[in-house]
């Protein structure tokens, strides 16, 4: 064996052995990263569908495919497992992966409640492995730009946050099939439980520490399939900042936006059609700032329109932050450094969701929950 061959063998041996459970749409982003990263080898994929499992194996050049995750864990003995399955399966899959001695990265929501997460977190600590939840939109370009603006003091202290998502979940697709109801309909907040994690972790990133929550849950479309299809909620922090979390399915167009208002200006980010608009004091004083802000906004929108057209042609999705997050996850596993999404981050989101879910069915005048999370 030559020195070059020996070095290649050593490098491969030092890589983390990774398995991915679930081969749906989101798993493509996980598989793309794992198959290309110099820190990992994609040992196996697993799905209940043999055809989907074998397709993902061939597409991403995994070494094996399985339909039984327990068989895979026993045969491969992975260092890391990505759990990319519907939420109602997470607790069981995560528990078994932790028991097998693997680090686990799980799609959100990792569990329906904070109490269930605490059980898994304790097991991870007992087994000496890490348990991490995917908060991918925190690492999208527009969100990182908002963090930069806040860190640089360009909009002052944040006093108000709004996270808004509009998706036509009743207009067909996996959630709207009456004859084959999606399992997420059985979650505490119904199918909305799949989305409020994203809304919650973005709100908490810029307005941490909720002390007073409110919520209005509604089924505007009627019928018995959907528990809820609309959420208007929020909270106030100890510092006086206010956050609003909004999900709707009867509006247009589809959107996922994050807006910050501060003592010196405001910033608005679009995560589905990526761009960031900033309205702040500009050179030229208060009289010219509105004109400069409009001119800058026009320039930003023109650039964004071209780039977003390219994204559509190249089939780039809003999951672009996932690759950034996974890079940080594997950096942390390699160096022993802090995870990009900490257990405290996950606790904060699940605690907030618990409090919002607890307000289901409350009268409008009573839809508040005080006290620290």
Your description of this structure?
- The chain has 373 residues and is of the alpha/beta class.
- The chain folds into 2 domains: 3-133, Rossmann fold, CATH 3.40.50; 138-370, Dihydrodipicolinate Reductase, domain 2 (2-Layer Sandwich).
- It contains 11 helices and 14 strands.
- The strands form 2 sheets. It has an 8-stranded mixed beta sheet with strand order 13-12-11-7-10-9-8-14. The chain has a 6-stranded parallel beta sheet with strand order 3-2-1-4-5-6, with helices on both faces.
- The radius of gyration is 22 Å and the shape is globular.
- The model is unreliable at 1-11 and 363-367 (pLDDT under 50).
- Report the span from N to C terminus: 59 Å
The average pLDDT value, as a whole number, equals: 92
How many runs of DSSP E, i.e. beta strands? 14
| Stretches with pLDDT under 50, minimum 5 residues | 1-11, 363-367
- Domain count: the total is 2
DSSP helical segment count: 11
- The CATH architecture of the largest domain is 2-Layer Sandwich
Shape: globular
Q: Provide the structure class.
A: alpha/beta
The whole-angstrom Rg is 22 Å
Multimeric status of the protein: single chain
Outline the biggest β-sheet: 8 strands, mixed
Helix content: 40-55%
Going by CATH, what is the homologous superfamily of the largest domain?
A: Dihydrodipicolinate Reductase, domain 2
Strand order of the largest sheet: 13-12-11-7-10-9-8-14
What is the CATH level 1 assignment of the largest domain? Alpha Beta
CATH topology of the largest domain: Dihydrodipicolinate Reductase, domain 2
- The helix-strand sequence is HEHEHEHEHEHEHEHEEEEEEHHHE
